[in-house]
Amino acid sequence: MRNIIIGALILFLLYSNSTFRSYTIRGLQVISDFIKELPTEENIDTES
């Protein structure tokens, strides 16, 4: 299911406007950076 979503996103970005594409890619980078900064369960257990 995840691969279908990624494939659809790639196809959408290939055929979209270049300005919109750059904003979309920047938004995805911000979201992925935010997810990387979220604490994981391992980090929570070791800090307690």
Report the principal-axis shape.
elongated
Please compute the radius of gyration using only Cα atoms.
16 Å
**DSSP, total strands:** 0
Q: What are the segments in which pLDDT stays under 50 over at least 5 consecutive residues?
A: none
- Cα end-to-end separation: 36 Å
Determine the strand fraction and express it as a percent band.
under 5%
Mean pLDDT: 81
- Percent of residues in helices comes to over 70%
Number of helices: 3
Judged by helices, strands and strand pairing, the structural class is: mainly alpha
Order of helices and strands: HHH
Query: What does the main sheet amount to?
Result: none
How would you explain this protein's 3D organization?
The protein contains 3 helices and no strands. The chain is mostly helical. The longest helix is centred in the middle third of the chain and has 20 residues, at 18-37. The radius of gyration is 16 Å and the shape is elongated.
Describe the secondary structure blueprint for this structure.
Elements: H1 2-14, H2 18-37, H3 41-47
